[in-house]
Design brief:
Blueprint lengths: L1 H16 L5 H20 L6 H17 L4 E7 L5 E6 L5 E6 L3 E6 L7 E4 L5 E6 L6 E5 L3 E5 L7 E5 L5 E6 L5 E6 L4 E5 L5 E5 L6 E6 L5 E6 L3 E6 L4 E7 L5 E6 L5 E6 L4 E5 L4 E6 L6 E6 L5 E6 L4 E5 L4 E6 L6 E6 L5 E6 L3 E6 L12 E3 L12 E3 L17 E2 L23 E2 L33 H37 L1
Parallel strand pairs: 31-32
Antiparallel strand pairs: 1-28, 2-3, 3-4, 4-5, 6-7, 7-8, 8-9, 10-11, 11-12, 12-13, 14-15, 15-16, 16-17, 18-19, 19-20, 20-21, 22-23, 23-24, 24-25, 26-27, 27-28, 29-30
Helix pairs in contact: 1-2, 2-3, 2-4
């Protein structure tokens, strides 16, 4: 056991002597340091060293070929929890709402100051940019909705929208209408130009947490404390289907960019993906240890990011049906997260009053339309897995699921861009199947999903008596990875400060 400790000490002495001038050098050193620490943990289980050797080789190749998401900007200015965040279509501004009753507009250019908008008399619960970027809508506990011009003058128009807190506000795709959801158990639709009330949807029997338009503006999806997620038809103004939650209630919901699927996050810590044509649940993820507060689809539709009260964000690969990344950026519950429309960035806000802007690096590799089959990863969290070439039709996961739940892939024919060519899996893969249909109408009776391949157990499976030991090791590895993530975050912030100093 002494040799690894000696190796670590020498490693850090070398890093200190060179002043860690090179960012990639530091990341490489930290990855080796993490491996050595894992080796110490596993040393007492000689039969598992073979597993470590495989992890070491896959980690080395993955770090070379696939960059991780990186923290790009870090904003502080709110005096209380950040409740909502949105990124403008041109990526020049970020809007946030907070429990401090303020709306803030952050400019992505480092030299420009943020705009601080006061107008609401209570907590701001939701904000969103209009598709044009010329307006920002905000909703509040003060029962009003405000439309702001995101400029220094802070011009705004306010109207009383509900008889209770307005939980969410959402623009239609053409920017002409708004949908609001409230604790008064109703959903209301308004015109943007004159803030004229159009109609109300009132089939929920408890607080409505969220309501959003479909990409084609024909449907509205809503989630409520009554343990239902409802689909509404804009023309008939009727509820066309209700999805039922059996344990918790849905706190957030969003449409897939194709308009054919919805995802919901729940108080039972789960994330579910539903097909709105068959009304069947395609995927369920149990990856959080706290309430799922927010979620957002990547514009291409291949990935879903979630934010939770467990202080983490998770990036899910919907094509493979597995967890890719766990992000530890906030020091307390993460309340909101959203992808930018350009796919390169996403932003998050938390109870720590911080707003973080991340670069996804999803498109950092070649845009070759051939997808990648992700190899089997172990139960050890946070170890990158090596990607191997395969066609999209042949892609399936082969590792046993931690949660023992079968997960379906979303059909590739509905994805609007080639899938990302790589992974950095932090949990085992889920067995997956795929629907055989390509129909787009809601009324079609579609066949059941058909399996694309048989999942098989990896060679040399771990004996049952080691399961508890492995689970304990996994939790320790999660702590180690969180520490490394904090170090990387500090490094990124230091680099940004140095860059600003050099620019000035």
């Amino acid at each position: 056991m002494n040799a690894p400790f000696t190796e670590k000490a020498a490693l850090w002495e070398t890093a200190s002597a060179d002043n860690l001038a090179d960012n990639m050098q530091l990341r490489h050193i930290m990855s080796i340091y993490l491996y050595i620490t894992i080796q110490e943990v596993f040393a007492h289980s000689g039969g598992l060293l073979r597993l470590l050797q495989g992890l070491r080789s896959t980690m080395a190749t993955a770090h070379v070929s696939l960059p991780d998401p990186t923290l790009e900007r870090h904003f502080k200015g709110h005096r209380d929890s950040v409740t909502s965040v949105d990124i403008s279509y041109n990526m020049k501004q970020i809007a946030t709402g907070s429990m401090d009753s303020c709306v803030m507009i952050w400019n992505m250019k480092p030299q420009m100051r943020a705009y601080h908008f006061n107008g609401h008399k209570d907590a701001v619960l939701s904000v969103q940019f209009s598709p044009s970027g010329h307006l920002v809508a905000s909703s509040s506990r003060d029962k009003t909705v405000r439309l702001w011009v995101p400029s220094l003058k802070a011009e705004s128009t306010s109207f009383r929208a509900h008889t209770a807190s307005v939980r969410s506000v959402n623009f239609s795709g053409d920017g002409q209408t708004l949908v609001t959801a409230s604790d008064d158990k109703t959903i209301k639709v308004w015109t943007v130009h004159r803030q004229k009330f159009l109609f109300s949807l009132s089939r929920h029997i408890n607080w409505v947490r969220c309501a959003k338009f479909s990409p084609d503006d024909r449907l509205i999806v809503s989630s409520s404390d009554d343990k239902t997620v409802k689909l509404w038809d804009m023309n008939s103004r009727e509820c066309i289907h209700s999805f039922y939650e059996h344990t918790g209630y849905s706190t957030c919901v969003d449409f897939h960019p194709s308009g054919l699927y919805i995802a919901s996050g729940s108080t039972d810590h789960s994330v579910k993906v539903w097909d709105i044509r068959t009304h069947k649940m395609l995927q369920q993820y149990q990856v959080h240890s706290g309430v799922v507060n927010s979620l957002s689809f990547q514009p291409a539709g291949h990935f879903l990011i979630t934010a939770s009260s467990d202080s983490t964000m998770k990036i899910l690969d919907l094509v493979e049906g597995k967890l890719l990344y766990t992000l530890h950026g906030h020091k307390s519950p993460v309340n909101c997260v959203t992808f930018s429309r350009t796919e390169d960035f996403f932003a998050s806000g938390g109870s720590d009053k911080q707003v973080l802007v991340w670069k996804s690096n999803f498109d950092s590799e070649s845009s070759d339309p051939v997808s990648v089959q992700h190899q089997v990863s172990s139960k050890v969290h946070n170890m990158p897995s090596r990607a191997a070439s395969s066609t999209a039709q042949d892609t399936f996961s082969t590792a046993p699921s931690v949660h023992h739940r079968q997960v379906s892939k979303l059909p590739e024919d509905h994805m609007v861009a080639p899938p990302w060519r790589g992974s950095n899996s932090r949990t085992t893969h889920f067995p997956s199947t795929s629907p055989s249909t390509t129909q787009h109408t809601l009324s079609e009776d579609l066949p059941q999903p058909l399996p694309r391949g048989q999942a098989h157990s990896p060679e040399g499976s771990i004996p049952p008596h080691l399961t508890s030991t492995l689970e304990h090791i996994v939790s320790q590895l999660d702590i180690l990875t969180q520490t490394v993530s904090i170090l990387e975050q500090r490094l990124t912030l230091t680099e940004n400060k140095l860059k600003e100093c050099m620019d000035n």
